[in-house]
UniProtKB/TrEMBL annotation:
Belongs to the ABC transporter superfamily. Residues 22-256 form the ABC transporter domain. It comes from the Bacteria. The lineage of its organism: Bacteria, Pseudomonadati, Pseudomonadota, Betaproteobacteria, Burkholderiales. It comes from Trinickia terrae. This is ATP-binding cassette domain-containing protein. Keywords: ATP-binding, Cell inner membrane, Cell membrane, Membrane, Nucleotide-binding, Transport. Transmembrane segments: none annotated.
Length: 262
């Protein structure tokens, strides 16, 4: 076989031209403090369409996790509302999955059991649970680790479990809360690239991704569009279109193999 690199594949879905997945409208959120109220999110608006990976870039404390918790239906906005697939959100919606900064795995469960746990709330039967969990484990590169416990895994592998647990539900919308910030830079780079490869090849069931991060390079590498969140209070102060067509494929394959071998 010749040594010519395979041509860049077109994304399986068009970038940002599709159906509206999420609409965050005039969302405010405050928290009660001993002296009055702390306004964390001030009038945040954002729309996600099918085919997009959108970034929310902000300093720590700017309200990124609060915004994700609102979109995940775990807490309510004090003002404004969130529409998911055109309907107002009231609590956790089916089809919305989240990946957490510190993985949030159950330490007493194996990899397989952790991934299956993602399906338990949905009342999926045991046999189908097992099948789908194994498929997600395979997809994310964890095959052979089904029976390992989280403590036996590296940080990167633990976060792969976090991804498998989110992907196993076939989410429409994937929320990621600084998913790579607990990993060393090389491991983070490998995992980001693997994910983008799966996304670009159309192998993820997801329609849209929202990733919050404080890492500018990561946002540029991962996202089609970046919203910048100010601090105190968190307000969307800028929106940036990432100007490259395929930023995900910018790493030279030879360099990537080298990184993977370290
Ligand atoms: P980020 O994820 O951008 O670092 P967070 O959303 O975690 O920011 O927090 C934003 C601000 O909201 C912080 O000042 C934090 O202390 C405050 N906050 C978050 N959750 C709560 C809560 N449950 N009660 C009180 N204050 C909170
Ligand atoms: Mg946070």
């Amino acid at each position: 076989k010749d040594a010519v690199a395979t041509p860049v594949q077109a994304p399986a879905v068009s970038r940002g031209a599709g159906q509206e997945i999420l609409n965050v409208k005039d969302v405010c959120r405050g928290f009660d403090k001993t002296q009055g109220e702390l306004l964390v999110l001030d009038d945040v608006n954002l729309t996600l369409r099918e085919g997009e990976i959108v970034g929310m870039l902000g300093r720590s404390g700017s309200g990124k996790s609060t915004l994700l918790r609102i979109i995940a239906g775990l807490i309510q906005p004090t003002d404004g509302h969130v529409d998911y697939l055109g309907k107002p959100l009231s609590g956790p919606a089916e089809g919305v999955a989240m990946v957490f900064q510190t993985f949030a795995l159950f330490p007493w469960l194996t990899v397989l059991q952790n991934v299956e746990a993602g399906l338990e709330a949905q009342g999926v039967g045991a046999r189908e649970r097992r099948e789908r969990a194994l498929a997600a484990i395979d997809l994310i590169g964890l095959d052979g680790f089904e029976n390992a416990y989280p403590r036996e895994l590296s940080g990167g592998m633990r976060q792969r479990v976090g991804f498998a647990r989110a992907l196993v539900v076939d989410p429409t919308l994937l929320l990621m809360d600084e998913p790579f910030s607990a990993l060393d830079v090389l491991t983070a780079e490998t995992l980001r690239t693997d994910l983008l490869d799966l996304w670009t090849q159309g192998r993820l069931p997801i329609k849209s991704v929202l990733i919050v991060t404080h890492n500018i390079e990561e946002a540029v590498f991962m996202c089609d569009r970046i919203l910048v969140l100010s601090s105190n209070p968190g307000k969307v102060v800028a929106e940036i279109q990432v100007p490259f067509k395929h930023p995900r494929n910018r790493l030279d394959p030879a360099f990537r193999r080298l990184v993977d071998d370290i």
